[in-house]
Amino acid sequence: MQTRLPEIVSRPVFALLVLLLVVLAPCASGDEAEDQYRVAAGHYARGRWELAAEEFGTFLARFPSHPKADQSVFFTAEARLQQRRADEAAERFAEYLRRTPEGPYARVARFRLGEAAYLAGRLDQARLDLEAFYREYPDDPLDAFVLPYLGEIELAQDAAAKAADHFRLALKRFPDSKMNQRCRLGLARSLQGLDQPDEALRLYEALAAEGLGPLSAEARFRLGALEYAQGAYRDAIATLRQLDEALDASRWQPRARLVRAMGLRKLKQFDEAAALLEGLSTDPTVGVEAQYWLAAVRKDQQQWDAAAAILLTTAQKNPNHPLIPAIRFHAGHALLRAKRIAEATEQFDRVLAIDQEDNAWLDDAAMGKIQLAIQQQDPGAVDRQARQFLECFSDSPLADDVRRTWARSLLARAECGQAVDVLRPLVERDDHKPGSLETSYLLALAYRGNGQTREALDCLAPVVSAAKTTSSPWAEACLLHAALSIELGQFDDAVDPLETLLEADPPGDLAAQARAQLAVSLAKSEKWKSAAAQFDTLAAGHPAHPILPPTAEQLAEIAYAAGDWPRAAKQFTWLVDHAEQEPYVNRGLSGLGWTRFRQGQYDQAAATFQRLLDRKPEPRLAAHAARACGHVLEQLGRLEAALAVYQRAIDEYPTSREQADVMLAAARLHGRLGHHDQAATLYESTAKDFPASDQLDTILYEWSWMLTDAQRSDEATALWERLHKDFPESRYWADATYRLAQRAATAGDR
Questions:
Q1: Per-residue b/e over 273-292, b at no fewer than 16 CB within 10 Å?
Q2: What pTM, to 2 d.p., does this model score?
Q3: What's the chain's average pLDDT?
Q4: Cα separation of 554 and 396, whole Å?
Q5: What share of the chain is helix, strand, coil (3-state, %, to 5)?
Q6: How far is CA 112 from the centre of its chain?
Q7: Cα gap 297→281, rounded to integer Å
Q8: Nearest-CA neighbor of 475 among 436, 511, 445, 518?
């Protein structure tokens, strides 16, 4: 709260001067000069300051050499001082001291000279004059006023320690002075400035309890404001509400209501806060501040358009108010949240264009431009604005936030290498600033995306070892640490951070992710029983969580890869029975079919694959299932049924990646059944449709034998020649070459 210069408090000096003036005033004598002086003195004695000054002025103009001219100058100065015309008073006091430096009023004039400068707000001059008086008159009763004045001057110039020294000395030397209350108030303010709030609170409370005078009212206001600053919002509201009932507190009531409203806002009592602020919106002293905080309440309520309207109107009506940079910034922020991009841009640009030496919102506005670019999904603008911010505001407290914001944008674009470059200087600085754990976490994400898994793990180490909390980024860091350990095959290393995270009892989604990763890590470490227990807990606690199906699928695949068919079958069955998303159910059926096949349960395997095919899954999975189903039916000797499955896949999924394998399987089965021509036709189609297949030599070789069995020797010979010429590295080359030689020998072609 800004320091206030007090009213003239040295009233005892005035009373003494009135007494002297009455005593020294001449008796009626008929002398014109004496009559003029007596008129002026009479006005002065009755407190008619303007008339007194005018009459003394007339006296001086008419009788400049009169013996009472000097004291007339002095009393003119006094009258002007009582009128609060401090600069005129100072000129007259200085004139008096020039005319008679050792005159009867010289001591008082020297004091008044400093007091007038103080009241005129010329604090540097006031300090010089008051300190000079104190040096010359160290034991004078007027020092009871000099010391508090000096304290007020130091407070006004943010020298709280010096101010406290002056107030303490005044209280010590003049304990019964009428300045006592003001000194204690000044001392409380000094202690508050020295970050000694407990001592300040005690002084404010004592002063507030002494009555309802102006100083007590000020003490109560400052008490409430300090309580607010300390976060004791309910106490502040109760303290400040009492000022509404105080007759002598009118000067502080608008400010008290403003701080009360701010306290209500902190307590999220938005409607009550808004009502108070709306009532203050036209107040001449705090109206602009009230509208500013009313807009803040509307922002708290996410009423972005309403907040922007209040701020824009306030800015238009008060273009030169000191709060204008803040008002326009928050207007821009509210417009940004309302997605009114062009208007938000205008406000941020206006803040950046404000030419104020103390414009503390320049970096905030520049940050706002970055957020606008992110909202517009303009990565080029994000990069440009972020670089410009870091060049112009490298020392800003927002610089680290800008780097993190920029890095998150880069990560979202998968530009992980540049994100590493942006974040690494912050982590290497390692100054433990707020946000340093988040920076390490983001850098780990960037390293991971850049393929630097080891560096990512190293970066996460200080985050994971930090104090346990379920808040970001510690919980996410634990999850990422586990994921990276799993990627590196260090499954045991993944277990500890996940168990630590679960011990911290994180909220639902984090708990589900942690338990899912823990189940997978334990399964990878072949701790099957513990893995199953974690999965069962996950399924019971989060039955509808989307992480359940992929976790079940992972556990099933791990068990399948390890040859643990019963566990694999259990997890695949869970997918089939519980997963709601069709792809998971289909993959569950596929895995279950293969698991039953591996167990030798061919009938069940065939039925499972058939069930999958009946669901008409995506082509690749369908073709794969058809091939598997046909293979199982072949194992069961149900060759015609197998052939029907192969043919269905050929007809229904012609573009599948599995098509070549299915066609080859069908051709072979035709061959087994003696359908040589059908087999040859399928081989021919396969070779034609898949000329780049890595099985082309096999297709050609088996096709040649089907043609041989079908008595189509010339066509078979042509295929052997193709194998001999085009596939010298094939395992079929030797036999094909031998067959060609044998055929030539039979034909007598030596």
A1: bbebbeebbebeebbbbbbb
A2: 0.70
A3: 89
A4: 47
A5: 75, 0, 25
A6: 55
A7: 14
A8: 511
Q: Look up residue 284 and give its two tokens.
A: 């001449």
Phi, psi of 181 (to 5 degrees): -65, -40
> H or E segment at 714?
helix 713-726
590 neighbors 556 (Cβ within 8 angstroms): no
First-to-last CA distance in the chain? 116
Angstrom distance (rounded) from CA 655 to CA 663:
12
Residue 501 tokens read as 């995270």
* The amino acid at 284: P
pLDDT band at 356 (very low <50, low <70, confident <90, very high): low
Cis bond before residue 473 (omega within 30° of 0): yes
Question: What is the tens place of the pLDDT at every residue in 368-406?
Answer: 999 999 999 999 999 999 999 999 999 999 999 999 999
pLDDT at 5: 37
| Dihedral (CA of 170, 176, 178, 181) sign | positive
- Taking the C-alpha atoms of residue 445 and residue 417, their distance in angstroms, rounded to an integer, is 11
What whole-number distance in Å separates Cα of residue 220 and Cα of residue 207?
8
Question: How is residue 278 written in tokens?
Answer: 């709306």
Q: How confident is the model at residue 16 (pLDDT cuts 50, 70, 90)?
A: very low
Q: Which residue has the tokens 């640490």?
A: 481
User: By C-alpha distance, which of 687, 689, 693 is closest to 722?
Assistant: 687
C-alpha distance from residue 540 to each of 511, 544, 548 (Å):
13, 9, 10
**Measured between alpha carbons, how far is 437 from 399 in angstroms, rounded to an integer?**
16
- Cα separation of 387 and 380, whole Å? 11
* CA neighbor of 33 nearest in space, from 6, 63, 61: 63
- Give percent of the chain with pLDDT exceeding 90: 65
Residues 6 or more apart whose Cβ sits within 8 Å of residue 175:
none
DSSP one-letter string for 408-442: HHHHHTT-HHHHHHHHHHHHHH----TTHHHHHHH
Q: Which amino acid is at 12?
A: P
Angle at the Cα of 196 from the Cα atoms of 148 and 214, rounded to 5 degrees: 45
Phi, psi angle pair for 161, to nearest 5°: -65, -45
Sequence-separated (6 or more) residues with CB below 8 Å from residue 159: none
Does residue 9 have a pLDDT over 60?
no
Q: What one-character-per-residue DSSP string does 660-679 give?
A: HHHHHHHHHHHHHTT-HHHH
